[in-house]
Amino acid sequence: xxxxxxxxxxxxxxxxxxxxxxxxxxxxxxxxxxxxxxxxxxxxxxxxxxxxxxxxxxxxxxxxxxxxxxxxxxxxxxxxxxxxxxxxxxxxxxxxxxxxxxxxxxxxxxxxxxxxxxxxxxxxxxxxxxxxxxxxxxxxxxxxxxxxxxxxxxxxxxxxxxxxxxxxxxxxxxxxxxxxxxxxxxxxxxxxxxxxxxxxxxxxxxxxxxxxxxxxxxxxxxxxxxxxxxxxxxxxxxxxxxxxxxx
Length: 247
Hints:
Elements: E1 2-6, H1 8-17, E2 22-28, H2 38-47, E3 52-55, H3 57-61, E4 70-75, H4 82-91, E5 97-101, H5 107-119, E6 124-127, H6 137-142, E7 152-154, H7 157-166, E8 169-174, E9 181-182, E10 191-196, H8 205-210, E11 213-216, H9 228-245
Parallel strand pairs: 2-3, 5-6, 5-10, 6-7, 8-10, 8-11, 9-11
Antiparallel strand pairs: 1-4, 2-4
């Protein structure tokens, strides 16, 4: 399967990660405003001997309205496995830090969470194999290419939680409820799995029941809850901060 990645930063990160098959790079005709990673992307493309073609802007607009003068044709995203994530943690001499996304369906939300996961040192991300957003060009763009540097696996979340528990990884479900404890009261020592629920329904009952502990973010306003991507991003930061203190 071939697909197009557009935008200067996403294209640059896809090239830099070097995890896909590359076919060709389209560059808009005319004078292009410099910025982002335009020249870096072109340099990498030439180093990798990827054909670079000058094309009319109209051809790029057929792919995306936000192409920024650049489009890269690539092979499909390569999903990883849970053992690869655990091996990465071992290689870094770190306790595993895994993000589990329970039916996140909006590509923008998925992209935001993947970008935060990569930035906060998550060793891998688990997403369901059906009924949820996948790593598409829209998600690559929303994550600004960060997903290309992450290990992401499609798995049954309930089953994967059982595997993680066998590895002595504690599973924390993020939600607002009377059963949830404040996130700041947890020290997050050892292996951590954070489960973020879907935008509308939160955690599914089976996934929720398998969590070792439910945690919530502090809130003082009148709104019931934060957007899933916003809440997940804050929780990732708090957990990573706590893990750094435990080193």
